[in-house]
């Protein structure tokens, strides 16, 4: 006598439709941006006032040209203020900003998390058609992880 399965017929019609969590779902769209001609004193004031650690640098057409961070400002301080020397007349964002590495708005948020780990950056600007449309920070990835269901991770 044969043993029958008590599980019954398996339903093969269920397709695993995993919903991807995209960068666009969690990126910040209202950004504090800087111009290359802004002074570093202005940047330092904005960073401390808004409690942020950096921001994108854009031109008049809202095209991303770089990033400015607390570390970049500290370089300025160490070069002039620490030694009680007068500030350089060219203490502008354009002189101290760094190149920006961007991220695609359609990237999976957890692929973006890996990119944060491998690059050791705190934020990635999001660009579409050459224009800045948002920014993804490490905190945004953490928010996505909290909201993710166990099967989407």
Describe the structure.
There is one protein chain. This protein has 153 residues and is of the alpha+beta class. It has a single domain (23-147), classed as CBS-domain (Roll). The chain contains 6 helices and 4 strands; from the N terminus they run ααββαααββα. It is elongated and about 90 Å long.
Short description:
The protein is an alpha+beta fold and 153 residues long. The chain has a single domain, classed as Roll (CBS-domain), CATH 3.10.580. The protein has 6 helices and 4 strands; from the N terminus they run ααββαααββα.
Total domain modules:
1
What is the molecular shape? elongated
Write out the strand line-up for the largest beta sheet, numbering strands in chain order: 1-2
Describe the sheet with the most strands: 2 strands, antiparallel
**CATH architecture annotation name:** Roll
- What is the highest CATH level, the class? Alpha Beta
Considering the protein shown, what is the CATH homologous superfamily? CBS-domain
Return the average pLDDT rounded to an integer: 84
- Counted by DSSP, the helix tally is 6
Beta strands, count:
4
Strand content: 15-25%
Structural class: alpha+beta
As a percent range, the share of helical residues equals 25-40%
Query: How far apart are the termini?
Result: 45 Å
What is the N-to-C succession of helices and strands? Answer: HHEEHHHEEH
Cα Rg? 23 Å
CATH topology: CBS-domain
Low-confidence stretches: none
